[in-house]
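Quick entry, no commentary yet.
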Amino acid sequence: MPNRSPPARSQILDGELLAAVDLGSNSFHLIVARHNLGQLKVIDSLREPVRLAAGLMPDGSLDPVKRERALACLARFGQRLRALPTERVRAVATNTFRQMRSPRAFQTAAEEALGHPIEIVSGREEARLIYQGVIQGIRETGRRRLVIDIGGGSTEFIIGEGDLALETESLQMGCVASSRHFFGDGRLGRKRWRAAVTEVSAELQQFAADYLMRGWSDVIGSSGTIKAAGKVARANGWYDRGLTPEALASIRDALLAFETVEAVALEGLSNDRRPVFAGGLVVLEAAFEVLGIDRMQICETAMREGVLHDLLGRAQHRDPRQATIDALAQRFSVDAAQAERVESTALTLFDEVAPAWHLGEAEHDWLAWAARVHEVGLAIAHSSHHVHGAYLLAHSDLPGFTRGEQEVLALLVRCHRRAIPVDALQALPERLFYPAVRLTLLLRLAALLHRPRSAEPMPRLRLSVDDRLLTLDLPRRWLEGHPLTALDLNQERKHVKALGFRLEIA
């Protein structure tokens, strides 16, 4: 089968607006930019210190007051975004969403308030997006760099060169979480401080040796805690072309001169940052000690700019998900010729039914990627390879993919043969369930038609839909020459029925 080109993407025109929403554990951010000559110019930004992580209860539930505060903030953001089409907005949720016992219920309410889908990203995907944001705000030197971003619920560490993140790690300690953990009663003290730094340092040891072996030339810090530390250092004359261990020691000593968090009054420290500054500074001091940092430059851009530029990159065919799928297929020695045959047929069927089923660019990509790796599980065993493949996709780090996208991809591979686990599909949120069911039907047909693994060209395929009736039109002579495929298609009727559809072969 020849390679198929993806459908033409909806080009971003000069003057169009794009928006990114960063739902962090400490603050919610909205940034709006105008596209002009391939560049993005920020024209509006909003920030609200929601402190969602402070409302996360030990059992994983969310405090009702924090919940309502978050939804009210998202409703305000939604008013600003009301005129923008969905494909020009990307909203990303981070650590606190990941830690919720039942994130889907809150995610649904949050999407309704915002008026746009919200994607929950993994810690390493968060790190990748942070790195993409940071490189928008620094001068390219050609040197390897270490980027540290202390958020509300987690801290991300990235080693990168140019626009490529080489190593990504996410530590489950941020300014809100650490402030609650170490200074929950509001009291400060040197003994408590040293114990806190020791505990965070122990967590950093998990990856410190590997990072030190990789090495770097420059260290860059981003987001609230580090920018706040820079402001305090500048206001007090401790800033020397960046943050240094000596500057951090001075900030720490000044902070510990106060007995309680509430009493802290440091020049340069804002009132809304004060409740979570101690916890963030503990993480920063531990990182300096364990990683041997002698100077850190501070960057104004962060994850929200990364989300914005990732959105632009997808529209300009610079999608990291494509490289991720190609690398996965290569790593597990997927039969490229067979994957290409299945992909081509699946996308031919997609083109036949996309208008009737309201399938767009996103669904096209999901189907193509699922086809390319639908046999990835063969690297483990032939028996139940669709189950093995689904496990690999669900539990691997897939740069560029959100949790929802990864879940859909895994389910498509899981459902491409044998009995369909309908319950697993029904567990998807509604906005993912309907396209996942339809893509499952298309991938199953494509895989079935290529079960002989033959390079013989397929005949002209026609697939039509009428409500829940699927009619696949194949030349009768071709079917007579392929009796096993004809038998498989006949048996496929019962599998399709499990999803509430009927299949007819014309």
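second:
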Amino acid sequence: MADISEAAPIRVILSADKHAKDKQHKRDPEAEHQADKDHPQRGGGFYDPTTIMGIPAAEVTPRVQETLTNLMVEFDSTRAELKSAKAHIQYLEELSESHSYLPIINRRGLHRELSRMLALAERAEISNTFVCFHIRNIQDIRRKYGLGAAENALIWAAEILNAGIRDTDVIGSLGGHDLGVILTVAEAESAADLAAKLAEALEQGAFPWDGERLSLKTAHGQHTFRPGDSAETVMAGADADLLAHEQAAANG
């Protein structure tokens, strides 16, 4: 079925020739071939001087012509409505993946990006690594300074992480106090080095709030993509690594 959202030439409706039945035309194959070269649409079946939309010109009465014109107008209107609807659907999809207040995508958007990156990595046979950052003292900030301070802390953390990654990397919210980063073309070792630098930037910096400078405490874990991974297993693997690190720090 043709896609009516794509613009296509519409044949001009010719006036009916009431004497067409009385006219005899002798075919000249060579002349017709040259006409097809001069007018490509003729060769493609879009234009035939003896027919209008498959209807012999002799049968196109003024009423038929008016009906066909109305149909074409309705066709163009439907095509414009479809184009507008597609644009609105795209807008809603983008909106559904934007975080409510953080300048990054939400968990749904991050899940989609992970799925896409997994497929690309498998086809290109490259290594990507997912890193989960947990902001450990958000609740302390929330209790002492209020909800606004806690939200501002997450916004600042997202901006620091975003500034520290490459254009090909992706950052998003995992919900709550967790942020996720997809490091493209990154083996486990190089990803660990970059994750440590990002964590250091988060903890050594501070953001202003109500005349004070507030700092963050973080923990992070990572998972390098493996064959057969899904977005869920990648997230779970990074979370398990994060918990293992926190447990080791608590015991040590």
